[in-house]
Amino acid sequence: MLLWLSVLVLAPVSGQFAPAPKPVISLHPPWTIVFEGEAVTLTCHISHFPAAENKKLYQWYLGTEIIREIPGNTLQVRDSGEYRCQTQGSPLSDGVSLTFSSAKLILQAPHSVFEGDSVTLMCRAKVERVDTAWKTRTLYKNYHVLIDLDENSNFHIEHAGLKDNGEYHCTESETHCCSVSSNTIKIQVQELFPRPVLRANPSLATPGNPVILTCETQLSPQKSDIQLSFHFFRDGHILGSSSKSFLKISIPSIVGNEDPPYYWCEARAGTPSVYKRSQKFQIPVQIPVSRPVLTLSTPGAQAVEGDLLTLSCEAKTGSYPIVYQFLHEEVVLRKKKATFGGMVTFHIFLTAEHSGTYSCTADNSLGVQRSQPVSLSVTGEPWAVSPPSLSGSVSPPSRASASSSPPDVLAHTSAVHLFADLGLFRAATSLPPRPLRSQMFSFLTTCPVNPQKHGVLGNQNQSPGAHRCFLSL
Predict the structure, then answer these.
(1) For the chain, what is the domain count?
(2) How far apart are CA 313 and CA 374, in angstroms?
(3) pLDDT tens digits for 411-438?
(4) Cβ distance 443 to 416 under 8 Å?
(5) Does residue 51 fall inside a structural domain?
(6) Chain segment 361-410, per-residue pLDDT in tens
(7) CATH number at residue 336
């Protein structure tokens, strides 16, 4: 088992600065604590130098002093302290602390433990007796009994995880005698690689066009020899798997204005078995507008001068915002912007000049679509209006004028309320009269009217004086 240590530094690459790893030191055996008299072999690895490692000169440090400068990248040591290495042109490695112990009992563990690692803790006595029936070794985690060790005095963690973090030590107890405790080691399980992040390029897509999905993560430098595999998903269905961290896909068509699908990826390490999933996200999809539909509506079966014409334009699909234009004989009448669903409308009061061909366009910056043309013929025959028939009532005069006004004369302070029946007919046509509204109005005010009878009617019960009633059609 090898121990890898690494920190990123900056090194020039193709004229620019890019991260370059420091040398890393591996240990064999992998323990950072051993008994006095034993030896540990250190190996200095420098991955970014292409030359053969045995042709370089390596400098080995104990503390801050150089203890050896040799052509090979290995060094066997028997002294306690912090060791570092480097070669010509490389940065200095991080230090690895070794302890050569004189204790009777030691607990050995790897210096670095990563999630998914298979880890062995070894409780060792300086003098191992052949007969072990009279002694007991116990492993503790956070000062609570974890397990009584077997005759091998080893404890195995198959797949290390956060649950295994803690402080460990072991004891050896002899029957009817005494107990010996080992050193304490702290296990902090490190992340093998962070949770991946899924990115899309381009970040704004259109249906049918290619998009590159990239599942971004980074193995710890100490575990750079592990091979990751990448798996890409869309709404729960796998799109592809490989050792490459990117995948080229085609964005599917969107029906109507439905939400785009969700994408995510997984990064997996086969040995050890560790996998992590990115967050789900949606790739914003720009949908070109469909051909809009133009609708013209008037109050009656035929369009007549004075009618209120409603023009409606709607594209059933398309990303917002959508800019609509209403055109009459290729002349733009109105431009409207829609930022959410639904049709846009436009109103005009018809005159004879409004006859002709109408159309509308829809544009969301992905192309302009035009509706089918719609023709409109405006009838110009005017309405004939008969004189209104007036009836009314007089409110009681005010106290100031009631006594002085003759009974047959309306006082200036009296309120006269009139009703009008207006007969309408269309000249030289057999079409039925158009209904208007009936409404009570006050004396000498504008008269909003509604015919209840048809034909020519005469004036009735008109009050003395010159009074005017304005009719608006």
Answers:
(1) 5
(2) 12
(3) 443 444 444 444 443 433 334 444 443 3
(4) yes
(5) yes
(6) 999 988 899 999 999 999 876 554 455 555 555 455 444 444 444 444 44
(7) 2.60.40.10
